[in-house]
Write a structure and sequence with these properties.
15 helices; nine-stranded mixed sheet; binds histidyl-adenosine monophosphate; 418 residues; alpha+beta
């Protein structure tokens, strides 16, 4: 029988795994420097938690199943709803903000293509307790800092504001339910569909005008103010403050795009996306914004904002732009017993060395020549030959790069290989 992996999933081989762990390490360090602490939630959740507010885009792509007690469950398609559930269940009485991060797998039954998988990883943060401009600016600055620390430069950061769009719709007396539908239309780029919507006169026109605003912050804000005319919009003022704070945080490589709608229903205010150049159709490597879920989950009127990197896409962007430096391979040292008579000594020396360094040993019973050629093909830097002729605690250390061979004591090996 020849088993294949399920459609839309991937096997990740050692070189890529090593690179992924490095990227993960860099993200963890940056998240923690900004005061976030890691959490883990279950791989599956009660279906209701996810369908409560995620929206059509997600609900159509769920891996849903019933357990043996007929509970409706689903594999998590994202981590904001689970993290907010965790907050409401476990942390709601702690001082705010709570700053939580995760690096976990998610599942969406989507049509697989390059950069779009049925199992993928997200590395994200949720700042729970504030959606003030300073909180939103910090969240965007964190995403930008993560990319800088990873050495990725070829990306576009776009920032929008659904609060401003919602304010405009409210001026035209469009209710919350219709606002969500309209925003999901916008997310799919279906502005034509808006004509068929029974919106009050002028609303569609204003909506098209405001969502086509794109460019430098000051210019977009000026035009948006004109569209909202004499109606004061706190959202617009907050947005303006957020952009001012980004500047003092050293983030200026963005454009403002009031056309960003995002595919999830829970967003309420600032929204942003990062697209990496050269990734093709699935180029969005990060998405986030301000959203409201705590109240819906019974935790009171607590705002939150955050984002998630599509970890797999981030890896692809790093591969094609700067190249991921993969370690030469582990281990650095390979122990070879010259004959079976010295096998016990070889094993003993290996276990001593493993207390300090990464060290492997010949396990296939090959002769010296074959062992050396194996070490060569595995990019191993040093071979230690255990020979009957070398007594006591001496071994032969062979440098595989230069071919140089010399006698050293076992305890000298870690220093000798540098
Ligand atoms: P999202 O935009 O649905 O937002 O997903 C975040 C990122 O996950 C996307 O930008 C993309 O890079 C990646 N992604 C999504 N679907 C796939 C897929 N099928 N294959 C590969 N990568 C994918 C959220 O999930 C929100 N929870 C983000 C957030 C956190 N907002 C506030 N806090």
């Amino acid at each position: 029988m020849n088993f294949k992996k399920p459609r839309g999933t991937r096997d990740i081989l050692p070189n890529e795994m090593e690179a992924r762990r490095k990227v993960e390490g860099s993200l963890r360090t940056t998240f923690e420097r900004f005061g976030y602490r890691e959490v883990q939630t279950p791989t599956f959740e009660n279906l209701d938690l996810i369908t409560a507010k995620s929206g059509e885009e997600i609900n159509d792509h769920l891996y849903t199943f019933e357990d043996k007690s007929n509970r409706s469950l689903t594999l998590r398609p994202e981590l904001s709803a689970p993290t907010i559930r965790l907050f409401v269940n476990e942390l709601r009485n702690k001082p705010k903000p709570r700053k939580l991060y995760y690096i976990e797998n998610c599942f969406r039954y989507e049509r697989p293509q390059k950069g779009r998988y049925r199992e993928f990883w997200q590395a994200g943060v949720e700042l729970i307790g504030s959606c003030r401009p300073e909180a939103e600016a910090e969240v965007i600055a964190l995403a930008d800092t993560c990319l800088n620390n990873l050495g990725l430069t070829d990306y576009n950061l776009s920032i929008g504001h659904l609060g401003v769009i919602r304010a405009l719709l409210s001026i035209h007396e469009v209710g919350d339910g219709d606002q969500n539908l309209i925003i999901s239309f916008l997310d799919k780029g279906e502005t034509k569909g808006l004509d068929e919507f029974s919106l009050p006169q002028g609303a569609v026109e204003d909506l098209k005008k405001i969502t086509s605003l794109k460019g430098k912050g000051a210019t977009v804000l000026k035009k948006a103010r004109e569209i909202l005319s004499e109606n004061d919009s706190q959202e617009l003022e907050d947005f303006s403050k957020l952009l001012e704070l980004l500047k003092v945080s050293g983030v200026d490589n963005y454009i403002v795009d009031l056309g960003i709608a995002r595919g999830l229903d829970y967003y309420t205010g600032m929204v942003f996306e990062v697209r990496a150049k050269g990734l093709g159709a699935q180029d969005q490597i990060c998405g986030g914004g301000t959203y409201s879920l705590v109240k819906l989950f019974g935790g009171g009127d607590v705002p939150s904002c955050g984002f998630a990197f599509g970890f797999d896409r981030l890896i692809m962007a790093l591969e094609s732009k700067i190249g991921i430096t993969v370690d030469k391979g582990l281990p650095k040292v390979f122990v070879v017993p010259e004959t079976l008579k010295v096998l016990n000594r070889a094993i003993n020396i290996t276990s001593v060395l493993r207390k300090q360094i990464s060290c492997d040993i010949e396990l296939m019973g090959r002769n010296i020549d074959k062992s050396l050629s194996y070490a060569n093909s595995e990019n191993i830097s040093y071979v230690i030959i255990i020979s009957e002729g070398v007594k006591g605690d001496g071994v032969i250390l062979k440098n595989m790069r230069t071919g140089e061979q010399r006698r050293v004591k076992v305890k000298e090996v870690p220093d000798a290989i540098g």
